[in-house]
UniProtKB/TrEMBL annotation:
Residues 238-385 form the Acyl-CoA dehydrogenase/oxidase C-terminal domain. Residues 20-132 form the Acyl-CoA dehydrogenase/oxidase N-terminal domain. It comes from the Bacteria. SUPFAM superfamilies: Acyl-CoA dehydrogenase C-terminal domain-like, Acyl-CoA dehydrogenase NM domain-like. This is Acyl-CoA dehydrogenase family protein. InterPro entries: Acyl-CoA_Oxase/DH_mid-dom, Acyl-CoA_Oxase/DH_mid-dom_sf, AcylCo_DH-like_C, AcylCo_DH/oxidase_C, AcylCoA_DH/ox_N, AcylCoA_DH/ox_N_sf, AcylCoA_DH/oxidase_NM_dom_sf, Glutaryl-CoA_DH_mitochondrial. Pfam families: Acyl-CoA_dh_1, Acyl-CoA_dh_M, Acyl-CoA_dh_N.
Amino acid sequence: MSTAATASIETLLDLDSLLTPEDLELRTMVRQFGEQRLRPHIADWFEAGEVPVRELASDLGKLGLLGMHLEGYGCGGSTASAYGLVCQELEAVDSGLRSLVSVQGSLAMFAIYRWGSEEQRESWLPRMAAGEAIGCFGLTEPDFGSNPGGMRTTARRDGSDWILNGSKMWITNGSVADVAIVWARADDGVLGFLVPTDTPGFSARDMTHKLSLRASVTSELHLDDVRLPADAQLPEAQGLKAPLSCLSEARFGIVFGSVGAARDCLQSAVDYVGTREVFDKPLAGYQLTQAKIADMAVELAKAQLLALHLGRLKDEGKIRPEQVSVGKLNNVREAIKIARQCRTLLGANGITLEYPVLRHANNLESVLTYEGTSEVHQLVIGEALTGVSAFR
């Protein structure tokens, strides 16, 4: 006996009842933008390994999505939960598009907002919020990802100026950025600098041959005797606490964003099995298919609830770094499992760009290890529970 579906992926647990009318309105707006402006092109961008970053930044700026959770300077001052929902809708289209917004707002803009001077904030943030200026965040180095404390990029004094030398790797938006937030080791510890990308000695090149995050610009930065004035230094940033605080901001967006990717995969799979006939009946009519869909829907709902809970904690100013690690570890891990399982339901069709599931799975392979690998987040959580650091 067949019956009409009584629930969808999003109504199964009525999670929309946990959102405010403003949240729902914003989510609808961003979802429509994604469907109309982004989704028609994303497969081509992914296949070509090219994405019109400046054009998209302008569009995103007009919607008020860049640095939307910051106060003043042309930023919207939204709740953390609202920002999370935006990340969710953008990553439902592609992780690379969420990365564009995350790097701009939660890494580059947040670094200036939290650790910069008033003059730096006034000079850069309004333009970055409007999408007129693009930023990148130079922390990771060729030999130092999970251990940023080992960085070899240096900053030394020369009179009142600073001279920077070194390289950074896996930098989103690096070759299209107008300003790079560069972290370097000086005599008195790790410092942050605003580096306009037209400064002599600064160069960036695209990293190619990627199998993941292809709809995102990934770059390698080189600094060869880059001379900066004293006021290029982020005056409030001293030590690794500053860049790590920025990473925590970006990780929060991933907690929500990964849910969007998983939701898109599951919705695609549900739609597909309802129309694909196997042995003279829809694939949806088999118990193994329904068991897979049910298990994925349960994990997706749990991930969504975790994201919303962390959003509320952040809005209340109570969130702790290990809690963000719980969200990033769980939600990305479950999202990639869902993407892979959905691929099995689509069979051979699942490996094409006609459907989003393997594209999402490939992207999530990067999301799984950037902004802290799963192992790093396990150690963060382990230290919080035991009081013993196991990083060394």
